[in-house]
TrEMBL record:
The keyword Zinc-finger does not apply. Keywords: Isomerase, Magnesium, Metal-binding. This is Dipeptide epimerase. GO terms for molecular function: metal ion binding; racemase and epimerase activity, acting on amino acids and derivatives. Its cofactor is Mg(2+). Signal peptide: none annotated. It comes from Anaerobaca lacustris.
């Protein structure tokens, strides 16, 4: 064999050996389970109330590394734990046969199953990326080339309730410098008065599509502007794009799209009516699409919020790894539950502190 050919053979063998050291080919273990997360307080928004959430967890393991993912189904999008679990089971053969390092192509393949249950796609996405980060020995924020110290302050959310309970919730959130207040029912004035009885901190308000008349929405927002409110999320139903554009021309505080946006394809049409978007992994289908949404929104000069459903530290931490890229964080879903089964991102005086452990950096609590 010629020397040049020998060197080529040695080089190719080295690459194969290097790849095999990361991907040894052990039989994968894939598990899906439903866990009930109990809330500290009854959670009420404009649409509904709940005392617990049944979320679906994904655990994958191969070659000594483990990846965790979480799906938080939302009835607003026709999701449920049962439907999500069924979709995930359909992806099992794909997961068990795939190279998890090829997560970009892998996401395209599982999206054929998860299109109508995007929270299932989010759980798969974070589990595979958690595994990749674990195998490479780096946290996701570092894998993405971000500065973890630039994670922002997160709001703490106050659900709709009686004035006395609202005051109690606000007192419990005294360490948070900014609060997010849920409105959209007939007692908006009572709720805001109760909040202002306890604190004068900046507020962000979320109506969850609760105001269905543009003139009512205008009156409410003009009133909120005088109460130290920084922004308003989804004041009107998602379908009322023209009415929201009309509203935006008449108010001074930013209007942020939430229910109106799921993925990157939704963003360009929203720029005429909204100042920014609220990205949630459960809506986008995972971290990869959320990253794409951030770049599209930036190209359109829109503000970016990272939000969440009520969930454990698995999905909250997954979203937090993208937080150095955004303007506003609302990543408190794990703080609203009484029995978080995981640890991950922490909060110090309202600021997110990203884990420095590989992958997501989450750990299951010992029972």
């Amino acid at each position: 064999m010629a020397r040049r050919d020998l060197l080529k053979t040695i080089g190719a063998a080295s690459l194969v050996a290097s790849a095999k050291s990361l991907w040894a080919g052990d039989s994968p273990r894939v598990a899906f389970s439903v866990r009930r997360l109990t809330l500290k307080h009854t959670w009420t928004i404009a649409r509904n109330s709940s005392d617990y959430k049944d979320n679906v967890f994904v655990r994958i393991e191969r070659d000594g590394a483990v990846g965790w993912g979480e799906a938080a189904p939302n009835v607003r999008y026709g999701e449920s734990a049962e439907k999500t679990l069924a979709v995930l089971e359909r992806t099992r053969p794909l997961l068990e046969s795939a190279d998890w390092f090829e997560y970009v192509d892998l996401r395209r393949r599982w999206e054929t199953f998860t299109k109508d249950q995007t929270c299932a796609g989010a759980a798969l996405d974070m589990a595979v990326l958690d595994w990749v980060g674990g195998k490479l020995g780096v946290p996701l924020w570092r894998l993405f080339g971000l500065d973890g110290s630039k994670a922002p302050i997160t709001t703490f959310s106050i659900g709709i309730d009686t004035p006395n309970v609202v005051r109690q919730k606000v007192r419990e959130a005294a360490d948070f410098p900014v609060l997010k207040i849920k409105v959209g029912r007939d007692n908006d004035a009572e709720i805001l008065a109760a909040v202002r009885d306890v604190t004068d901190c900046p507020l962000r308000v979320d109506a969850n599509e609760g105001w269905r008349d543009k003139h009512l929405a205008l009156d409410r927002i003009l009133w909120l502007q005088d109460l130290g409110v920084e922004l308003i999320e989804q004041p009107m139903p998602a379908a009322m794009l023209d009415e929201t554009a009309w509203l935006r021309d008449r108010v001074d505080i930013p209007i942020i799209a939430d229910e109106a946006v799921k993925d990157a394809a939704d963003i360009p049409k929203l720029a005429q009516a909204y100042d920014g978007i609220n990205i949630k992994l459960m809506k986008s289908g995972g971290i990869q699409e959320a990253m794409r949404m951030i770049h599209v929104a930036r190209a359109l000069d829109m503000k970016i919020m990272l939000g969440c459903m009520i969930a454990s530290s698995v999905s909250i931490t997954a979203a937090a790894h993208l937080s150095p890229l955004i303007d506003y964080a609302d990543l408190d879903g794990n703080l609203l539950i009484a029995d978080d089964p995981f640890t991950g991102v922490t909060v110090e005086r309202g600021r997110l502190v990203l884990p420095d452990r590989p992958g997501l950096g989450v750990a299951e609590r010992k029972r």
